[in-house]
């Protein structure tokens, strides 16, 4: 009886743990923003929020949607280059549906996408893993370039922006160099000497990245990423202008991208906590009062991260149902 219950109890305990972790992070973020708002006065904070009308909110959501469509198009381009015989709507469904897991620990959204691919095409996870890795690398490269250019054009610099930019670009470079990545995986295996099968699959996936060294594919992927992430940065600029805190396009984009990257470096799901703290701090250092920086941060996170999650939640059951209906038995 113990052995029969073990397989089901383990996933349940993981879901409970992940749920508690996510709930704790959300509570901490909410309490932090609420605490800051209470120091400046709720009336001032709410007054800033009332400055926004429905049309402006729709504009912010539309710019976020541009980001998601561009990145879904990039996912399709990379999937076809990898050799997947999947159409645009199918790939877009996989990509957008994965957003439902954006704030779950361990990047579960990526695993869900690979599971759908395995069901519908019969491709093992190690065969589709390079697609996920290249998608992440393209994001890092695009955001690194945008951050570097924005900091160069901004009236004042951002402390820590140069190291973060370099780190993002180096990570993107490593993730797109098959031989280098395979060598690093080999070194990691020799240092640990454990899980040889997992490291073997990782090396195999790394070597598959050679498909993406095709120059036209890399240029298209980078261009789509640049357009997508700049659209959200521009949304942040518009939001600040509407709230009466115009700090310039370059500085606004730099703060948005830097905060997003900084949140990711914390390892928290969706960058929760880290991105918000960085955004409020950088706006404050630029002379923006808390009664503006706090609602601006809350609104941009709602219209980017949480809007993506909402789209993911809408697409997820459709993607799950269709993947089961088209399941290819191994």
Q: TL;DR of this structure?
A:
The chain contains 14 helices and no strands. With 330 residues, it is mostly helical. The longest helix has 39 residues, at 2-40.
Describe it.
This protein is mostly helical and 330 residues long. It has one domain. It is 80% helix and 0% strand. It contains 14 helices and no strands. It has helices at residues 2-40, 42-50, 54-82, 88-97, 108-121, 125-153, 161-175, 178-192, 196-207, 215-242, 249-265, 274-285, 290-303, 305-325. α7 (161-175) packs across α11. It is globular. 42% of the residues are buried.
The end-to-end span amounts to 29 Å
The overall strand count is 0
User: In one word, what is the shape?
Assistant: globular
Task: Output the radius of gyration.
Answer: 21 Å
Task: Sketch the major β-sheet.
Answer: none
Overall pLDDT metric: 78
Summed up, the helix count is 14
- Overall tally of structural domains: 1
What is the share of helical residues? over 70%
Strand-pairing-aware structural class:
mainly alpha
**Sequence of secondary-structure elements:** HHHHHHHHHHHHHH
Low-pLDDT parts are: 1-10, 35-42
Strand content: under 5%
